[in-house]
Amino acid sequence: MPPKPAIRFAGPEWFVPKDDAIFQHLPKTLFKSDVYSLGCIMFYVFTVCMPWNDATSVEISDQLRKRVTPSRPKGSIVDDEQWALIEPCLSLLPKKRPSASDVLKKIKDYLVSIGIPDLTGQIEKRDNHPFASGGYGSVYEAILNRKTGGRVKVTFLHWRMSPA
User: How far apart are CA 28 and CA 19, in angstroms?
Assistant: First the structure.
C-alpha cells in the first residue's frame, strides 16, 4: 500500500480486496497506476485542490474499495477540455486508462489550444548533467532557439516516464 501522503494519488487497484474478481490478477506495480496518479496531479493543477480534499485516508481507501474515484468538482472550476484530460486517467480499471504517450499528446494538444507554443526541436541542452534532479525528473540549463531568430537562456524540467 502506498504511504499515507500518497493515498490521494493512488489508484483503486492498491485498495481492493485480494479476492475482488475485477482486480484479482493485476500486479501492484502497474505503469497504469502512474497514469492514475498523473490524473490526480492534473486534478490538483487545474483545481488547486487535492483529490478527495475533504476526506481522511480511511475514507479515501473505503471509497476506492467501493470502486469510486474522484469526481469532477462542482461549478466551473474545471472546464470540459480540462476534465477530458483528467477523467480517462482516473478510470477504475487500469486497462481502460490511456497510455502515458497518449496523455502526453493530449496535454501537448491542450497547451497549444490555449496558446502555449510547442517548443519541440527549439531547446538545446547546454550540458548533459542536470543542475537539479529528483525521482521523476531533472532540471537542465538550455538554450531556446526562437523561430523568429535569436537565442535565449532557459531552464527546463525533463520529466522521466517509463514506456507504456
Answer: 14
pLDDT at 98 > cutoff 80 = yes
User: What's the pLDDT score for residue 136?
Assistant: 63
**∠118-119-125 over CA atoms, to 5°?**
155
As a whole-number percent, the residues of the chain with pLDDT over 90 amount to: 16
Which domains are assigned to the chain?
Answer: 4-113 (1.10.510.10), 123-159 (no CATH)
Task: Kindly give, in sequence order, each residue whose CB lies less than 8 Å from that of residue 24, ignoring residues fewer than 6 positions away.
Answer: 18
Q: What is d(CA 131, CA 108) in angstroms, rounded to the nearest whole number?
A: 25
Going by pLDDT thresholds of 50, 70 and 90, the confidence category of residue 162 is: very low
DSSP state of 16: S
Cα–Cα distance list, 145 to 35, 151, 157 (Å): 32, 5, 17
Distance between CA atoms of residues 25 and 61, nearest Å: 20
Query: Backbone dihedral region of 115: left (phi > 0), alpha (psi from -120 to 50 degrees) or beta?
Result: left
SS3 94: helix
